[in-house]
């Protein structure tokens, strides 16, 4: 196993996406998602915990069209040479005959797949990036379906994910489960725990945390 290292932040990029307010009664609002974006951005740009240049962290808050997400993602994927980190929080929706994962936006409707972003588009942009390491964090319902489009073997755990492909995937739930956003909490359940792990560290771990250690503690 190679030694842990910090990213080369000058050649790393991050894209943080979150939809917390929805314009349809079919999808309940998730106000904690806005706090998620702030918390993740602060963790990534805090030199004591990470070190991303704030200018290299794009935040897409309350997207209403797929282009708003994909334009930022494709730009970051093209620029990143060391680490590409992509985070999404919001409603995960299932669409089509095969129940493909879609990511909710402000105008998304459960009966209209074209009003949300097909996750496959995001996966394609990530896979096409020349970044050495690609990290995808999905905090949404049915997020376990993300493995199918990014991993050669979707049954592998995160401890086996860093292969020649250089891809890590962290999901808040399985392909059939709903994610949790407890009412009144500052963050959604998964992102709140993720921020706690990043901020407090992992018992008996070293100064730097590997993705496997973060996954295991989560």
Descriptive report:
The protein has 218 residues and is α/β, with parallel strands linked by helices. α2 runs parallel beside α3. It is globular. About 6% of the residues have low confidence.
What's the multimeric state?
single chain
Task: Label the overall shape.
Answer: globular
Count of helical regions: 6
Mean pLDDT: 86
Total strand segments: 8
**Poorly predicted segments:** 152-164
The percentage helix is: 25-40%
Please give the alpha-carbon distance between the first and last residues. 22 Å
Order of helices and strands: EHEHEEEEHEHEHH
The largest pleated sheet is described as: 5 strands, parallel
Gyration radius from CA atoms, angstroms? 16 Å
Strand order of the largest sheet: 2-1-3-7-8
Structural class: alpha/beta
Strand composition percent:
15-25%
Q: Topology, pairings included?
A:
Blueprint: E1 13-18, H1 32-45, E2 57-61, H2 66-79, E3 83-89, E4 92-95, E5 100-103, E6 117-118, H3 119-128, E7 133-139, H4 147-150, E8 167-171, H5 189-200, H6 211-217
Parallel strand pairs: 1-2, 1-3, 3-7, 7-8
Antiparallel strand pairs: 4-5, 5-6
Helix pairs in contact: 1-5, 2-3
List the keywords.
218 residues; alpha/beta; five-stranded parallel sheet; three-stranded antiparallel sheet; 6 helices; 18% strand
Please provide a brief summary of the model.
The chain has 218 residues and is α/β, with parallel strands linked by helices.
